[in-house]
Amino acid sequence: MSEHDYRLPRDTEPAGDAVPLHWVDAIPVRARFVAESVGGRWAITQWRLAAVEPAEPEAPDTLPLEIFVDEADGYYLNLSSGEPSIMVRWRLPEDISGVIGEAGEPVAIAVTLSYDEAGRWMDGGERVDRVPMPAKMAEWLAEYVKLHWKPEDKPRKRRGPKASFMRRDEFAQLVERERQRFSPGPGGEGSGNG
Length: 194
Hints:
Layout: E1 27-38, E2 44-54, E3 63-65, H1 72-79, E4 85-91, H2 93-97, E5 107-112, H3 115-123, E6 127-132, H4 135-148, H5 168-182
Antiparallel strand pairs: 1-2, 1-3, 4-5, 4-6
Helix pairs in contact: 1-4
């Protein structure tokens, strides 16, 4: 896969006081898989993702590689991982047809640059593999992230101690108050006087 094949379809860099684009055109890509024989005597065929390459939009196996503002956290995680990747969700023909042992190449279902989205796929039991992201693609994705990603605000601290961090005597007083409040008898909620 050559470096110059990938470029941001629309310029996301705002000109002057313009607002950055929140949507860019999808990049048509195709996933290429290779078969490897594993297992000696049983000669099991195992498929692995070999590449994600630019494709013609009209080709039957073309997938749209899209980026979305609400996935900016996932793009940031991908870029900051040390090895930015393109992730592909795929299935074997038998997964689609339900016929065990059906032969054929894997079918790519979707492609993403978001670690969060790929994680959701895996949480759902899908097969997901990755290939390294070309440097040119990482550059424009980094520009998109710079424009749209905002670090999460730190959570606000709770005021006052939690019950598990109270001194023993304070905790004992809290327990006694609750016991009196909910115990049956005069003054307690259980007595019907509450």
